[in-house]
Amino acid sequence: MTLCGKMEAEVEIKVSAETFHDVFSCRPHHISDMSPAKIQNVDLHEGDWGKPGTVITWSYVHDGVAKIAKEVIEAIDDAKLSTTFKVIGGDITTEFKECKIIVQATPKGEGSCFGSLDFRI
C-alpha cells in the first residue's frame, strides 16, 4: 500500500523570521541545543553547512523512541525564507518511499514568526 499526501504544521516562535530561517538553512546543528529533548544531534556527512547538496543526519526522539533521518538539503530560498530537505535514509524511509520537508519562516510582528513545516510524502 502506498500513501501519498501532504501534512502541514505551523507554530508561532519568539524569534525573527530571518533568524529562524538561518538556523534551519545554515546552522541546523544548533537545533539540538535549542530542543535537546526532541533533537539529540545533527551531524554533517557531506558538503558544507548552508549549501544545497549538503547531507546531514538528525538524531531525534519520536513517541519516546530514538530515531534518525538522513537528509540532503535540496534548496535554500533566502527570499522566501524556506529550506527544502529530502529524506534519503533513516527511520522515515521504512514507512514512506519518499519524503520532502519544507521549512519556511513567515514574519509575524516584531521579533516573532510563524515556522511552518510542510511534509510531502
Per CATH, the architecture is 2-Layer Sandwich
- Total helix count? 3
The largest sheet is:
7 strands, antiparallel
The shape is globular
Topology, number of strands: 7
CATH C-level name: Alpha Beta
Describe this structure in words.
- This protein has a single domain, classed as 2-Layer Sandwich (Alpha-D-Glucose-1,6-Bisphosphate, Chain A, domain 4), CATH 3.30.530.
- Helices cover about 15% and strands about 50% of the residues.
- It contains three helices and seven strands; from the N terminus they run βααββββαββ.
- Strands 1-7-6-5-4-3-2 form a seven-stranded antiparallel β-sheet.
- It is globular.
- The two termini are about 15 Å apart.
- The model has no long low-confidence stretch (mean pLDDT about 90).
Give a quick set of tags describing it.
Alpha-D-Glucose-1,6-Bisphosphate, Chain A, domain 4, 7 strands, 3 helices, seven-stranded antiparallel sheet, 121 residues, mainly beta
Secondary structure elements and their pairing?
Layout (H helix, E strand, L loop, with lengths): L5 E8 L3 H10 L4 H4 L4 E8 L8 E8 L2 E13 L4 E9 L1 H4 L4 E8 L5 E8 L1
Antiparallel strand pairs: 1-7, 2-3, 3-4, 4-5, 5-6, 6-7
InterPro entries: Bet_v_I/MLP, MLP-like_ligand-binding, START-like_dom_sf
Protein name: Bet v I/Major latex protein domain-containing protein
